[in-house]
Design goal:
Number of strands: 7
CATH architecture: 3-Layer(aba) Sandwich
Radius of gyration: 16 Å
Oligomer: single chain
Order of helices and strands: HHEEHEEHEHHEE
Bound molecules: S-adenosylmethionine
Distance between the termini: 25 Å
Structural class: alpha/beta
Number of domains: 1
């Protein structure tokens, strides 16, 4: 089970948190991308994306310049302020991007709409991650894929305990939960993991539909 305080992890609270930090997000996240090697993980995972792509929790659009050229990307996010930054980035890049404000737990798309669904560093924040994962899988076409890049609660007992202890402070300051058991949540959502790459707290996961 994920240890989070229900009061501070409602979807409204999550949205407010990201609206609040939107203008600092890239600055806060950049060291992890560059020094923590997350940028190269994004590139490796997203090289698999093809066709009609839905990126859930698109944030400020950090992945927009990573997608292969044969993709048409729709990005959704709960935070209007994060989305505003993604739109600015898309205007600058000039690719075929479309954005909508929506929650991954209730996607405004028909079943089997997309070839690929992408989420990077998102299910650490979604208020009900299992519902979100099920909904992400619903909108993927048969034969399609869900690509996930997520950090998870450390598996060692001491580090796990430490991450649980500092999670409320980290969540308040920078947004995500650092103690989500996303691999367990994927199993609980009934998704079919075909590939998983583990490195420290990072997971690159490919789910086939
Ligand atoms: C840590 S940021 C990651 C942003 C981006 N994916 C990246 O890799 O930089 C988490 C994002 O998920 C969004 N988010 C949180 N809960 C969500 C939900 N239920 N549905 C859609 N987006 C959500 C937040 O607003 C935020 O933009």
């Amino acid at each position: 089970m994920t240890r989070t305080s229900p009061r501070s992890d409602t979807q409204g609270a999550v949205t407010a948190r990201y609206d609040r930090i939107a203008r600092f997000y890239d600055l806060i996240d950049r060291p992890m991308d560059v020094l923590g090697g997350v940028a190269s993980r994004r590139r490796r995972l997203l090289a698999r994306a093809h066709g009609a792509v839905l990126e859930v929790g698109v944030g400020t659009g950090r992945n927009l310049d990573v997608y292969p050229p044969d993709t048409v990307v729709t990005g959704i996010d709960v935070s209007a302020k994060m989305l505003a930054r993604a739109r600015q980035r898309a205007d600058h890049l000039g690719g075929p991007f479309r954005f909508e404000q929506a929650a991954v737990q209730q996607l405004p798309f028909a079943d089997a709409t997309f070839d690929t669904v992408v989420a990077t560093c998102v299910f650490c924040s979604v208020a009900d991650p299992v519902a979100g994962l099920r909904e992400a899988a619903r909108v993927v076409r048969p034969g399609g894929q869900v690509l996930l890049l997520e950090h998870v609660r450390p598996r060692t007992r001491l580090l796990g305990w430490l991450f649980d202890a500092i999670n409320p402070v980290v969540r308040r300051l920078v947004g995500p939960n650092i103690n989500r058991r996303t691999e367990d949540n994927i199993v609980r959502a009934g998704l079919d993991v075909v590939e998983i790459r583990r490195w420290g707290i990072w997971r690159e996961i490919v789910v086939r539909h």
